[in-house]
């Protein structure tokens, strides 16, 4: 089995994991920590760029960042918060599941097409950067929305 197939299977399992985490998270109140830890934890993956085979050209960096930021729009649009009692919860969105699956399918197709023209190491670096460029804007938007609701929740208690 080649590396492209193995990494695709790994990505599918990670997407399924994210889906379950997201569905489970909607049952518990959210917090700033739950919003900002994923992108911070993900930064350790950038260590791959110390290894020459994972380094990207400026054009590959631009392509990965632009596509990642574009994909983040769909995640931002389906991530909304609501106040329940004294807590802030992430609203469940049926569209999120379909968007996550759609993004996975697009990723698999892109990887299959690009694996014949781009070295596997560089392709891995591009997809890591794409994912990071997707999660950071999404989490920044979530943080901003959360802070607005947090202020609303805590200002309404003092009135």
Question: Helices, strands, pairings?
Answer:
Blueprint: H1 3-25, H2 32-42, H3 58-77, E1 81-84, E2 87-90, H4 94-114, H5 120-158
Antiparallel strand pairs: 1-2
Helix pairs in contact: 1-4, 2-5, 3-5
Q: What does the model show?
A:
- By secondary structure, the protein is mainly α.
- It has one domain (3-158).
- 72% of the residues lie in helices and 5% in strands.
- It contains 5 helices and 2 strands.
- The chain has a two-stranded antiparallel sheet.
- Helix 1 (3-25) runs antiparallel to helix 4, helix 2 (32-42) packs antiparallel against helix 5 and helix 3 (58-77) runs parallel beside helix 5 (120-158).
- It is elongated.
- It starts with a helix and ends with a helix.
- The relative contact order is 0.18.
- The model has no long low-confidence stretch (mean pLDDT 87).
Q: What is the succession of H and E elements?
A: HHHEEHH
Number of strands: 2
Nearest-integer average pLDDT: 87
Number of domains: 1
Helix content: over 70%
Question: Top keywords for this entry?
Answer:
single chain, 159 residues, mainly alpha, 5 helices, 72% helix
Report a brief summary of the structure:
With 159 residues, the protein is mostly helical.
């Amino acid at each position: 089995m080649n590396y492209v197939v193995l990494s695709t299977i790994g990505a599918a399992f990670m997407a399924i994991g994210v889906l379950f985490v997201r569905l489970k998270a909607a049952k518990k109140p959210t917090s700033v920590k739950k919003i900002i830890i994923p992108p911070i934890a993900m930064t350790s993956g950038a260590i791959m760029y110390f290894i020459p085979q994972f380094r990207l050209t400026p054009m590959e960096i631009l392509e990965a960042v632009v596509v990642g930021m574009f994909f983040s729009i769909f995640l931002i649009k389906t991530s909304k918060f609501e106040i329940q009692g004294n807590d802030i919860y992430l609203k469940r969105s049926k569209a999120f599941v379909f968007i996550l699956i759609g993004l996975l399918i697009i990723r698999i197709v892109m990887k299959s097409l690009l694996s014949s023209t781009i070295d596997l190491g560089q392709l891995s670096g591009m997809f890591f950067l794409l994912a990071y460029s997707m999660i950071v804007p999404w989490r920044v938007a979530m943080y901003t929305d959360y802070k607005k609701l947090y202020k609303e929740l805590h200002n309404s208690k003092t009135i």
